[in-house]
Amino acid sequence: MLTRPERCWTLTEDDILALEIGAAILGTGGGGNPYIGKLRARQALRDGHKLRVVSLQALPDDAKVVSLGGIGAPLVSFERIKEGREGLRCVRALEERLGFKADAIACEEIGGQNAMEPLIVASLAGIPVVDCDGMGRAFPEMQMSTYSIYGHRSTPSVMCDPHGNVVIFDHAISEKWHERMARACVIAQGGASTLASAPMSGAFLKRFAVPNSYTRAVALGRAVMEARRNHADPIAAICEMEQGKLIHTGKIVDLKRHLRGGFVTGEAIIEGFDAYQGETGSVLIQNENLVFKRDGQVEVVVPDLIIILDIDGGEAITTEMLRYGQRVAVLAVPCHPLLRTSEALEVIGPRGFGFDDIVYRPFGADVVRNQRAGDE
Amino acid sequence: MLTRPERCWTLTEDDILALEIGAAILGTGGGGNPYIGKLRARQALRDGHKLRVVSLQALPDDAKVVSLGGIGAPLVSFERIKEGREGLRCVRALEERLGFKADAIACEEIGGQNAMEPLIVASLAGIPVVDCDGMGRAFPEMQMSTYSIYGHRSTPSVMCDPHGNVVIFDHAISEKWHERMARACVIAQGGASTLASAPMSGAFLKRFAVPNSYTRAVALGRAVMEARRNHADPIAAICEMEQGKLIHTGKIVDLKRHLRGGFVTGEAIIEGFDAYQGETGSVLIQNENLVFKRDGQVEVVVPDLIIILDIDGGEAITTEMLRYGQRVAVLAVPCHPLLRTSEALEVIGPRGFGFDDIVYRPFGADVVRNQRAGDE
């Protein structure tokens, strides 16, 4: 069905390395470390599979596209390597349940380790991945994708674990209920499974997916690699690629972090230095970096991207890897417009994470205007 | 397919009342209170549905029989009344998943409230319930049925909750894994759902089901009602019906009870009176009454039935209703031979409940021989 190979792009090992870096940055502190996924994707390549990415434009309107990703605790999937064919089993069981054939695979979230899983599954199934995702970053729950927000019902879905168990969430009365049941089930399965959702049409994806996700993440990774090679500043390279801004540099002087309801929550206090000397930044965390405050004033809020990087190498630091004394840079990147509509903000705005007293103001225009000279 | 109506028996409102009493006694402290189920079964009758029970003998070998029951915390299902058609939705979804038509419904456990659910579902579906069950009593987990023990694979199964969510456990690598995943999911669904398992054949049930469960529970209830009406001893009536023995009478003088892993666990200490003056009985509990000791010596062990009754009225007391100061009678009833094989004891013997130091000795022969005159 996908007959325009010129719109298909085949990933190389180098692309996978770049994707690992880009996906980690777009994870905004969450989404898990893509390292193991990189190894698995590379192995798929070396085994002779093709990692093909097809552009949204090249996707026929009536294509049937299955989105999938890992579900569970990123740390578990880092320590207990997947059996490897969970995702393919999900797709096959879904095809059998609904009596269709998947034309392509879509990515749920490009941030973190879930950037890799769709590529691996698609390569095993011999179909391409669509160059898009449902978040343009990482979020902790399934209903937080543009697919769900803009009306796709993700059930029937199939969840497979490394042991061989197969669960079909045949009907959920809401996307939130789907998340709730799947979350309970993945914990029973050991904490790291794979879930494939009911197929979407090409036409739906063209309207409601965040486009060019793989292109973007690979280019981002390449820019960082390039800057490192040239002894240039990787943080400046990221800002340029992502229309982002460096909003703070400093040292982590206090870190509150606890597990609550399966999430890492807390706050990192970052005492400024260089251009930010005398200013105290703080980042509120729930798996991802959600709110950036300067001297107690909210400056950047989810769904805009708040990225914490090691100040020297420009590596993304996931929330569970934050440590007292780390010297970090904080970047803000505007989220995709699909995440800024009122429907989207209901789900992934500050209220969606329990920050009832914070009003979302899009990062970009005014912040850039008020920026001080020292920022760049 | 079930063409021999002479082997079908249609329950009356009176039968339902008797079943409530009998099922509570066979619950051996667990299985939940059948009161709400009784009301729902009676309502089905009054709505014009038929509650038909077909004997195992009358069941064609190739009949397709779906076993089902409530899953979750008995207390929840007592406080939050079911929506009512969960079980029917389970059967319909299972039929659709597997492409078959159910000929009859089987009961998973005749003890407690799960005696009622199959009747209600069958009546709504217009098919009979088979006069059998998978336990001949109550047990806390799904893999503890003779169906599972003797080789039936209960997946694909369907779980429905009162909200309208439908989950298919399409494949579990073992019966224990099925239980584990379903248990996690039912908690997420609010703690009381209904689950229907993959169909069994009539031939399988004839070999491996505990037979005559409804006949037995209704007769047991009728015997108690009759004794009460005639101011006779309902406890003696139960013992006679069930080839049981009164093994202790006394007052509860100590009660340890805590929730652990979703189960009620603990111990009731019963200081003897009457013929048992000077003897201390104790009952170890995990949802059901599992072990009876006299002065520290094990006398009766699961899977044999240990039943605690109010000494005056002969009402069964569920483990969560045990109270300090209650005056109780303890009865032992031999379990069905299908529960005494080595395969069965692996799952539902003392080791299946973590009593690794207790060896199962069948209650009956020797206990009866050593019985003292005061027992009857």
Task: Summarize the structure in short.
The structure is a homodimer of 376-residue chains. Chain A is 31% helix and 27% strand. By secondary structure, the first copy, chain A, is α+β, with helices and mostly antiparallel strands.
What descriptors fit this protein?
31% helix; CV3147-like fold; 376 residues; S-Me-THD-like_C (chains A, B); 18 strands; disordered C terminus; alpha+beta; S-Me-THD_C_sf (chains A, B); CV3147-like
Q: Could you describe the 3D structure shown?
A:
The structure is a homodimer of 376-residue chains. The first copy, chain A, is α+β, with helices and mostly antiparallel strands and 376 residues long. The first copy, chain A, has two domains: 5-213, 3-Layer(aba) Sandwich (CV3147-like fold), CATH 3.40.1610; 233-375, CV3147-like, CATH 2.40.390. Chain A is built from twelve helices and 18 strands. Chain A has a seven-stranded antiparallel sheet with strand order 16-15-14-13-12-18-17. In chain A, strands 3, 4, 7, 8, 9 and 10 form a six-stranded mixed sheet that branches. In chain A, strands 1-2-5 form a three-stranded mixed sheet. In chain A, strand 15 and strand 16 (297-301) form a beta hairpin. Chain A is globular and about 60 Å long. Chain A starts with 7 loop residues before the first strand and ends in a 7-residue tail after the last helix. The relative contact order of chain A is 0.15. Mean pLDDT of chain A is 92; it is low at 1-5 and 367-376. Chain A binds chain B through residues 93, 97, 158, 163-173, 177, 180-181, 183-185, 187-189, and chain B through 93, 97, 158, 163-173, 177, 180-181, 183-185, 187-189.
